[in-house]
Amino acid sequence: xxxxxxxxxxxxxxxxxxxxxxxxxxxxxxxxxxxxxxxxxxxxxxxxxxxxxxxxxxxxxxxxxxxxxxxxxxxxxxxxxxxxxxxxxxxxxxxxxxxxxxxxxxxxxxxxxxxxxxxxxxxxxxxxxxxxxxxxxxxxxxxxxxxxxxxxxxxxxxxxxxxxxxxxxxxxxxxxxxxxxxxxxxxxxxxxxxxxxxxxxxxxxxxxxxxxxxxxxxxxxxxxxxxxxxxxxxxxxxxxxxxxxxxxxxxxxxxxxxxxxxxxxxxxxxxxxxxxxxxxxxxxxxxxxxxxxxxxxxxxxxxxxxxxxxxxxxxxxxxxxxxxxxxxxxxxxxxxxxxxxxxxxxxxxxxxxxxxxxxxxxxxxxxxxxxxxxxxxxxxxxxxxxxxxxxxxxxxxxxxxxxxxxxxxxxxxxxxxxxxxxxxxxxxxxxxxxxxxxxxxxxxxxxxxxxxxxxxxxxxxxxxxxxxxxxxxxxxxxxxxxxxxxxxxxxxxxxxxxxx
Length: 500
What we know:
By secondary structure, the chain is mainly α. The protein is built from 20 helices and no strands.
């Protein structure tokens, strides 16, 4: 029962968001992504694989629904263990540090391998890379609910992240072929940006419900069902893109980026159970930092770099990626901290804990639909700034009253959750458009890898860094301050561009 309920919810979410993106693709490809952007340069139309075209409007809607459902499932998987963590700890006899590592394992490999996944998608074609990634993701996802112990579950989560790191950027490469015009792709990205936070919300809500009714193992049975369906439908619905086999993979850069990101993330996660001065923390942090410091030099010397530095030197894109990472961090921080707070401090059941986030999900879906025309009317930068400001207000309210068990839920938590949901939807929609503006079709996988890396950087590295503050309220307050700072950055850049 849990599997079918969640799968249908995921598919419905993808279907409901497909309509706007599909109709947008009828616009002239020479128009800007949005009326407020003004400066966008149309990206070259990708070359479809032989015998493969985007197809009719109903076929595009079905294809977008499939891609959206897959993206939601990838992020669902990231959050699927959040609410059931206490039950997993009870079954396997885990301590808090073990739970933190288990929760972060999927994100560690997901974030660390995304850049390589993006380049693989560009080199071998989006649909082919998507299929290969789904096969790995499905196999690992089948192993997770069947895990006999904590080590097997941890290994399955690491493998899931590796598969997801190939699927996520490949899906965006296929999306670029599905909506070849700049206007259609831009509006599709405004929808796509909200799917990740929707997936995180689904992971927290549905995993709690399924765990309460059945078991946490059934909550982990959702991803393989979606992955297997994706493997069956992808060849039938998705357009192919031409492979760029002349492009090298830059394996030294991939090794440096993957190992560096993973070591830094692990070192930050380890601070939950070890002192900052301990070898368990300092060794991975120092090694990871050294590898990441060497990464730019290797990339400058590479014939075909994994991440061309010009891609990040665009200040609009850099600011957008910062907004993506911060928004993902803010929503993940609120979900994790309050999921534990509800069950530990207020003694709520997993089912009641999930119910507490239902208003968040409702507002998120409504805001996601409402914000797309705002991106077209006011521009993605204004929408991003407004979303971050709303998120900062929501996190501020949660900091002041959310952890006080004497304050009722409706007064202490609900207003902050509503503001955070509305702000997160707007921020993701606007920043996803900004981060992918003007990207050449041959770099669609790279853009997908970078965007998803920012999404995973927030819930892993930034979240782990916030945990080092040692106090839940302080973590939320620091996140709110960062939201406000980045909102001012986007607002200031928008005003400077508006001057004659």
